[in-house]
Amino acid sequence: MTVRCLLVDDNLHFLTAARVLLEREGVAVVGTATAAADALHQAADLRPDVTLVDIGLGDESGFDLARQLAAGSDPAPVIMISTHAQDDYATLLATSPALGFISKITLSARAIHDVLAGGGPAAPPVSEPRGR
Predict the structure, then answer these.
(1) Model confidence over 70-123: pLDDT tens digits?
(2) Angle formed by the axes of helices 62-70 and 36-46, to 10°?
(3) How far apart are CA 43 and CA 45, in angstroms?
(4) Domain definitions of the chain by residue range
(5) Which of 19, 106, 119, 123 could pair with 100 as two cysteines, CB 3.0-4.6 Å apart?
(6) What fold is seen in the domain 4-116?
């Protein structure tokens, strides 16, 4: 089954590169957004299977966006992404509604599938299971 993904990042060059990479690997990138308001609108309209959210969205917080997405009706899982190491955000990741974390350097269809399956090195260590 093809995963339908919404990409949210304030860097247009990254959005373009990530879209090309993921689509080449079989992920359907159904939308891209550079700001929280647009991401919320697209998530409601497109109903992706997963939303990848950059932790730093310019003046906005990716963690705040993840909470807003999770509060929506029938929310898709959120995976946080960043150029920074997962350890830099361990506490914030553990308390966020995000399903996991993927470094932008290791972003791939496989990494997304691993986090969605609840395993793999991309998922943050948590003491309790996380769901949709």
Answers:
(1) 998 889 999 999 988 777 788 888 999 999 999 999 999 999 999 999 854 444
(2) 30
(3) 6
(4) 4-116
(5) 123
(6) Rossmann fold (3.40.50)
